Automatic annotation (TrEMBL):
Protein name (Swiss-Prot/TrEMBL): Catechol 2,3-dioxygenase
Assigned EC number: 1.13.11.2
Domain VOC: from-to ranges: 48-167, 211-326
EC primary class: oxidoreductase
Annotated Pfam families: Glyoxalase
Species this protein is from: Rhizobium soli
UniProt keyword terms in alphabetical order: Dioxygenase, Oxidoreductase, Signal
Signal peptide: 1-35
Amino acid sequence: MTITRRNALKLTGVVSATAALNGALLAEGTIAAMAAPALPFAVTTPVHVDQAALRVRDLKSMTAYYQGMLGLEIIEQHDVSGDRVVLGAGGSPLLHLVRSAEAAFETPGSAGLFHIAYLMPDRGDLARWLVHVAQRQFPITGFADHSVSEAVYLTDPEGNGVEVYWDRPHEMWTWEGEVVTMGTNALDVDDIVATTDINRDTYTKAPANLRIGHIHLRVGEIDKARAFYGDLIGLSSTRGTRDDSGFFSSGHYHHHLAFNTWQSAGAGMREETQTGLDWFSLEFAEKSDLLALKDKLKQASVSFTRAVDHIDILDPWGTNVRLTGL
């Protein structure tokens, strides 16, 4: 199938390419030629997001979606019970799909997952992927230039949010003290796909160094989320103190974790019997830092579960945060 840059957006469910592109402020022609690091900056920090798990009703169709849309490979499959598939890139596990066939769908007004954000190694990979989803006609729900990154948004078949993005080099980000400049501007999709062949799909699988760059959550109360992910877990705010959202990171990344109350203000505990985010993991580069956090949890009388290689702790709405690095 042959596509032009202008009809690429229409093939993915966007009504007007012109409307999506108007007002894009940043040209990227020179950045595209920059060499990507072996691993994205996001996963080289003292703490980073490693993996995530979703509870799903239709394991087969959800597996097919993430294989087809993002090009993830099956890392592990439980053939006997048929209740779990682990998907990843380059041999690294990223997404666990756990079958829960009788589960009710989690509602947008509840606490839970806003989106899982998959980080492309460079802009060329994002361009090839955009041509891929256009030709395969995977619906796209949004586009944004966030100043630090260029992002594309989708929704999987069971309603879970997905972001696919690449980061501009972190040396180019603008900081004022501990606040990074992030906007939500129109994305120049034409400029992105100009870096690749738009007439054929060359995106056959996810790049080996594709990773989860960040997790964005729906929460019931911003102050509680700040206290848990900031004061307790130890991540640092990168966007100041906002009433409706928070952005937190480690090692001066723009954000490894975000949360908002845009639809979920006042939400209570999540239902374990519903679909959605089962757990996500934060990996600590230094074992000593994780052990220090473990001691902090004990001193604060915060309950947690210790396994051989990780610690599980529930946030105020019942989302399981897996702390790894032991």
